[in-house]
Design a protein that fits this description.
This protein is α/β, with parallel strands linked by helices and 321 residues long. Helices cover 29% and strands 20% of the residues. The protein has helices at 5-8, 14-22, 35-45, 78-89, 107-112, 124-137, 163-166, 177-180, 184-203, 296-305; strands at residues 25-29, 49-53, 94-98, 116-119, 140-147, 150-157, 212-217, 222-227, 240-241, 251-254, 270-271, 288-292, 313-317. α3 (35-45) packs parallel to α9 (184-203).
Amino acid sequence: MSRYARQTLLPEVGEEGQGRLTSAHVLVVGAGGLAAPVLPLLAGAGLGQITIVDGDNVDLSNLHRQTLFAEADCGQPKAERAADRCRTLNSEVEVVAFNHALTSENAASLVAQADAVLDCADSHAASYILSDTCLEQDKPLISASVLGLSGYVGGFCGGAPSLRAVFPDAPDSGASCATAGVLGPVVGVIGAMQAQMVLNLILGLVPSPLGQMVQYDARTLRSTGFRFDDAPEPNTCFRFLSASQLTDTDQIVELRGVEEAPIATHPNAARFLPNELHKLDPNKGKRLALCCATGLRSWRAAEQLQPDWPGEIVLVAASTS
């Protein structure tokens, strides 16, 4: 009996649908908690190729939700260990691992090779870089985020509105799983929804997951959802760039103090804390690059400065995955 017999029995799949899955190439950015259910479910379903991008190593403090890994994996590259697990589960699937973070420099080439993209990274910068890239290339993006006891998953781009259309402003909270905590099952539920969404997309199920948002609250065990097919794209946005993409003509500002970041994101950066931004001289014609750890402080500072800054403002995050 075929390993895919139980799913090809479904009228929504069949042999034709299994053929679609076998020929599909999915890019998964982030090999942590969300990817823990995503990767084995996609490998088990028989996708043709899975590319995994993550620059971090396995850490003991994350094992409660990053259940692809074991204690013996600690210190090893997450992308490689996750790829090994997928290959062990299904040798028919081609799995490629990249042990580096997603950046605005490598995103375009990575996205171009895939049929669909899954944002499993715990990074605002990575999420918006992927959304901008997928919107430009007309590639579908399944993006998710989890914090504490709640999370969401949505289908963006590929003919649907982008992440910026739904979340045009800087997030209210700068909390992350590392600072605010998270329960493993919440991440597992949201990650499983991501896997289901991309399978629905590849199989062409109706309604399309693109333009659909699902929110889940683990405290009440309830989920809600809405469609955002007509959400307008924002007229302007702050792009995320890598430090290496900045030029000598840019005015570069490091928003972190020396105690937090002894080495600035860029060697030409001047240090200004967020409460000192009023001291900036708005030189006409110069692009302003705001740098911080995650891009969130930079985004908030950009919103504050935009009414009075005559040129473009870009954001630089020291870490994107």
